[in-house]
UniProtKB/TrEMBL annotation:
Compositional bias of kind Basic and acidic residues: 141-153, 160-173, 184-209
UniProt feature, compositional bias: Pro residues: 95-104
Span list, region Disordered: 47-209
Ranges of compositional bias, category Acidic residues: 53-66
Protein name (database record): Uncharacterized protein
Organism this protein belongs to: Polychaeton citri CBS 116435
Amino acid sequence: MASLISLFNRLLPFATPGTPLVQDLVHLASICTLLYFAPQIQEWVQQRQQQQEQEDDEYLENPEEPQQDHQPNGVEPQMIGDEAETNQQANDDQLPPPIDPQPQPGDVNAIEEGEPGPADRPHQTIAAQRNVGAKKAKSLARKDQRRAYHEFQRSQGEAQRARDAAGAAEREAALAQERARRKAREDAIAAERAREREQRRVAESAEREEDNRRRELVVEIVREGLASNRMVDLFKVARQVGGDVDEEWVERIIKASAGLLGRKGNVFTMITSTGWAVRVREDDMREFYARALTATEGQKEGKTLEELTLLLKGILSDTPS
């Protein structure tokens, strides 16, 4: 056991501090030399292995021909009949192909028909495949996958373009029908809107004409009533006009008519709060004041507003216009 430990310590120069310095330096130089020449040694070993593999491949591709059996005296036995011919054909089949003669200069056919070059030898391809590392193999596999993916995408795109081209005519026809249908619908909508606008215009025109007719009728009725009776009931005027006309509308029409209300000389035309259009002259007011004084003479209380209204109404009704 002690001898084994001593041998182990000698193999490990830096294991114990008691080793001589010269021995440590020798071991150090040996280790440095070994590390320096280690790559060359490894390369030489790999080359030897590759060479050995190539020789093995060549041996597998071109096996040695088996030696024919010979008689001890060197004389071959002669075959008689069909057996001799059969053996001769078998021997001819087993013989290697004849060696091609050396091609003459200028003989192109002979060069082309010659033995395959180094690039065509299968054993070199096999050796090259064996030299491919794991990382290189993975890189080649990824490239093949990408190439297959791009090829698949390209084929899909071409198929889609072919389908699009095949259905282009049908789509164009369908789009043309859709455009025609939309245009027909838009034309129908435009025609309907135009008809509605025309109807609305006609209705508005008729309404304006009817409104103008009513206005003219109101003014005419009030003017004739003031000329004949000097008093016109606006409620009766609204009933004569008809429709949805009321007293307020008649009053607005009378006020809007120029020259119908107001004072002209000694005549004053107005609309009362009770809905009457009244035309009063200066003589009518003198008579009204005189009758009012006579009626209230000797009375402590005067006349009420209603009584004065009835008195003025009687004066306007009795007095001719």
